[in-house]
Amino acid sequence: MVKQERAARTRKILVDAAALEFDRDGYEGTSLARISKAAGISSGAVTFHFAHKGALAGAILGQGRAAAREVLEKVAGDGADPLGATVRLTLELARLLESDVVVRAAARLAREQSRTLPGWYCVWLPTVRQWLAEAGAAGLLRPGVQSDVLATTVGYLLTGLELRIRARAFGPEEGAADGPAVEQLERIWRLVLRGVATDPPA
Amino acid sequence: MVKQERAARTRKILVDAAALEFDRDGYEGTSLARISKAAGISSGAVTFHFAHKGALAGAILGQGRAAAREVLEKVAGDGADPLGATVRLTLELARLLESDVVVRAAARLAREQSRTLPGWYCVWLPTVRQWLAEAGAAGLLRPGVQSDVLATTVGYLLTGLELRIRARAFGPEEGAADGPAVEQLERIWRLVLRGVATDPPA
User: Fold this and answer.
1) Any idea where the HTH tetR-type domain is (chains A, B) (predicted)?
2) What pLDDT, in 10s, does the model give residues A33-65?
């Protein structure tokens, strides 16, 4: 039992250290040797837990997707209208991307490895597309606003925000002037909603 | 003279082949050996023209930045109002990202190598920030619209679009349903402008 706990702890240390390396340098730019060094765990112990780099990437991707799914379920259960839920979901995801390096690494790895729709975004973006279609049908969007164009816009905004958060995490301090990503996204939503919502917040 | 022309042609073939590799797989995921194979040029000839991978990346970055600067100067000389010029510039840049793999590779390489503001975006995004501030001062933006928030939004939208264009260039056909990137961005602008512009287009 103690042995199992120790193994779980070692795996967590490895996943966290690997996430930082993958997030900063991408899949191709990261080696098991560097992860081993960053985690302070011998390369023998690393390969005991994760036979190859792809196995570690897979663990990170799984954890990052699970975190997004959890946020999605929480927001979906909130009972907000579909436009409000969309805003709320993206803010929660921005918070996640900013605070959790595993989630951020998952978003990057999924993009680098799939080449189609990034596997992290496809956990939640189809639901946003559906919610916005419902918002349109419920008269929450102004006449003429195409819900699918708005959904695409949301996907692009989150992508831009993700890359900005990453650049800021590893770059010099200058970007800190933007403030937290969530507040930045709140300001962007206020700007977008006054154009698309029937009843925009003040 | 003929010899110089031949050298220039070889360099162009190499830059184009390398851009495709860098755009698809990033700096770390690309080797001189693969570029040599893709270009159909011996590795001896490759290193004669570009001593190392970084030299090729530098040439691509320079060419991609020059292309963005050219578009910027053309739009700046058009005499449009600052809000119209911003829209026009982003559409021209989207066209460039979609049609020119060297520009797209430059945007990716700059981001991977700098970790601060991506070096391709900083060719033109500061000008957008300035134009939008001027648009605000000229009363072209609705009261309450913060021009710097709009500028950040523009940067994020282009980033998302860039990544989408790249995924589509190398992924399966499915994404083609979105239509050309320029048309997609036009639809997004219509949606954004109705919220921010004093006098949005119909």
Assistant:
1) 8-68
2) 999 999 999 999 999 999 999 999 999 999 999
Closest CA in chain A for residue B31: A28
- Residue B157's nearest CA partner among A180, A26, A191 is A191
Distance from CA of A171 to the nearest CA of B (A): 5
Which residues 110-149 of A are in CB contact (within 8 Å) with B?
111-112, 114-118, 142, 144-146, 149
pLDDT at A28 over 80: yes
How far, in Å, are B2, B86, B91 from residue B173 at the CA level? Answer: 42, 31, 23
- Count CB atoms within 10 A of the CB of residue A99: 13
Contact with chain A for residue B159, Cβ under 8 A: yes
Domains within chain A, CATH numbers bracketed: 2-196 (1.10.357.10)
Please tell me which residue of chain B has the smallest CA distance to A26: B28
The string of DSSP letters for A132-147 reads HHHHHHTT-B-TT--H
